[in-house]
Amino acid sequence: CTGHPGVRWYTRHTVHHHRSCCLCVSGMNAAVRATVRVGLYTGAKVYFVHEGYQGLVDGGENIRPATWESVSMMLQLGGTVIGSARCKDFRTREGRMKAAQNLVKLGITNLCVIGGDGSLTGANQFRTEWSGLLVDLVRAGKITEEEAKKSSHLNIVGMVGSIDNDFCGTDMTIGTDSALHRIIEVVDAITTTAQSHQRTFILEVMGRHCGYLALVTALACGADWVFIPEMPPDDGWEDHLCRRLTNQRARGSRLNVIIVAEGAMSREGKPITSDQIKKLVTDRLGFDTRTTVLGHVQRGGTPSAFDRILGSRMGVEAVMALMEATPDTPACVVSLSGNQAVRLPLMECVQVVRRNCSVVFMICRSFENNWNTYKLLAHINPPDVKSNINVAIMNIGAPCAGMNAAVRAAVRMGIIQGHTMLAVHDGFDGLAQGQIEPITWTTVSGWTGKGGSVLGTKRTLPAKMLEEISQNIAKFNIHALVIIGGFEAYVGGLELVQAREKYEEMCIPMVVIPATVSNNVPGSDFSIGADTALNTITSTCDRIKQSAAGTKRRVFIVETMGGYCGYLATMAGLAAGADAAYIFEEKFNIKDLEVNVGHLLEKMKTTVKRGLILRNENSNANYTTDFIFNLYSEEGKGIFDCRKNVLGHMQQGGTPTPFDRNFGTKMGAKSVLWLTEKLKECYRHGRIFANTPDSACVLGMRKRALTFQPLAELKEDTDFEHRIPKTQWWLKIRPIMKILAKYNIKLDTSEHADMEHVIKKRSPLGK
């Protein structure tokens, strides 16, 4: 070991093997790529096992050494390039003996398995039997005593690949987010034709035992009804469904959307099919009804940015888990919870699979939250008794995808609580000028899928308009305020809080919901809109890399948004496989630029003759995008040529991704529930009076929890000059991007993931 105290530096040569076995899903290749490259980085010899367990049993050419170049240009590919197959032979002891013999002959003692619960159960059984298999192989003369001694134990680590997200112990399995992207693309396309023709559409998605895809799709598109296996509908659901659809049409809706999981069933255990629902709606209501069964479309396509980052981070953690494993270490599964890497006992996860209602609600709190949020926002049952509370909602700062989903959820949750909801147009300007009007349940119909800001948004801060704002708060009798936006929303909220000393009208509860592509709001690890921008950058980089691969010897310099925050540049670099990403938070000089140029010059000598460099727009005042372009062009003359691309405002547009729709919906709903409780606390002598620090908060995601943090308390962790938090979690994963780009740097594993237990896990968000 070398390096500083508390930093592990792996140099031991460990033979490591990587394989994949399950129905292929998008994002697997990112995990394969990361496992291979980090394995090579640690000094291990890495093997591909083609065609899953069948390749392990058959051996021969199915088990081949993996190289750095062999996993190039894989990130944007769906499925798995090393193949996947179900294997009957591996279910027998004879088959597992053949597999063990093949591994022993190659000196492989570490196995990385990407698959579902069946694949991981098989891997654990293989490990449990390992000693006995070696004894039988020696007795049969298939291996020598010396070979058996060298391979005396087998280490296993698993990564979960499944679009159903049906594996306990992880917020998201590899492939789930990409499947949601495919589904939402179809829903958006169907919505336009359904509105034109006033149709009812029934969409059947995968999920034989787990309704995660169906539930999140319903939440993300505002579906009228969802059928999932975990929650069979109440008796008489047919009447209830028809009544719901009729009410929606009566309120002016031109379409109805019903989402059905393929495993949906009634309380009697009888299947509920899309054809059955179509017949019900057509016969009883006479609505023009169409059915779409997505099928295997959900498994294919380009992986989303989230799945690429998830696969990459899990691949790195899997190698580290294998490097640290001992004969006494139980086989584990690596996953991410919130933004934290976790390791969980493999069999503990397998034994508690999410396949019945009680398990779902006991283990996966995010599923329960999704279900409860959907039920509240989809059902049109406003209370008869009004609260006499007026809650105003506004958007502040630059527009971003997902803002409208947050507004919709906040409006509907407020109406459910009995409040009168007020829309403030054009930010603080609108609040000062009285651009305030009631907003209703039907007004926000269809807003989840709309990009930008329907309410209108401006960057203006309230400091110079406090008098006018206080007058309008009194005039419109506003009792609470929801501020949805970026850094300006946080600073504007602070200015309103500071004005409480002078203006009593400002003494009302306030909540700031982070919504910005820059992901630079203090108090939250994620902002609404950042995922959509990240996917836009990643898909553009895919096209750029494809162009560079065709022309050969070409390097692209791409400028991203983010202000002084390097989140987009860093995460897009990891998702797109960039060679470098320049950001403000990590200072760089001319020597660093020279190293990067030298790295690309060496890369051009390999079979991978292309380069991708990302630069955050404000990373350095002197080393501009033009400067870096000119430097690379000059230094690479005769070896490679350069092109530059400034992505600009295309990063703020587009329809929201499933994550931003879901995240915005949950944040909007939770903010109003919090305000409702806070209003009860602040009600004194017949009026609302809130002047404590905890009455004005940022609602953000911190590691694994959605938390409310007082605006004033976050000042210490804020760099106001550069509009960024002083501590940012994603900086710790930047070394992963560099290692995967083949830079010889040290990976700090002092904060490696410890083994946890499934039964203690409580995640608030999922994805």
UniProtKB/TrEMBL annotation:
Molecular-function GO terms, alphabetical: 6-phosphofructokinase activity; AMP binding; ATP binding; fructose-6-phosphate binding; identical protein binding; metal ion binding; monosaccharide binding
UniProt keyword list: Acetylation, Allosteric enzyme, ATP-binding, Cytoplasm, Glycolysis, Glycoprotein, Hydroxylation, Kinase, Magnesium, Metal-binding, Nucleotide-binding, Phosphoprotein, Transferase
Residues annotated as binding ATP: R86, C87, G116, D117, G118, S119
Activity regulation: Allosterically activated by ADP, AMP, or fructose 2,6-bisphosphate, and allosterically inhibited by ATP or citrate.
Cofactor or coenzyme needed: Mg(2+)
Any one GO CC term of the record: 6-phosphofructokinase complex
The family this protein is said to belong to: Belongs to the phosphofructokinase type A (PFKA) family. ATP-dependent PFK group I subfamily. Eukaryotic two domain clade "E" sub-subfamily. Belongs to the phosphofructokinase type A (PFKA) family. ATP-dependent PFK group I subfamily. Eukaryotic two domain clade 'E' sub-subfamily.
Protein name per UniProt: ATP-dependent 6-phosphofructokinase
Organism: Lates calcarifer
Gene assigned in the entry: PFKM
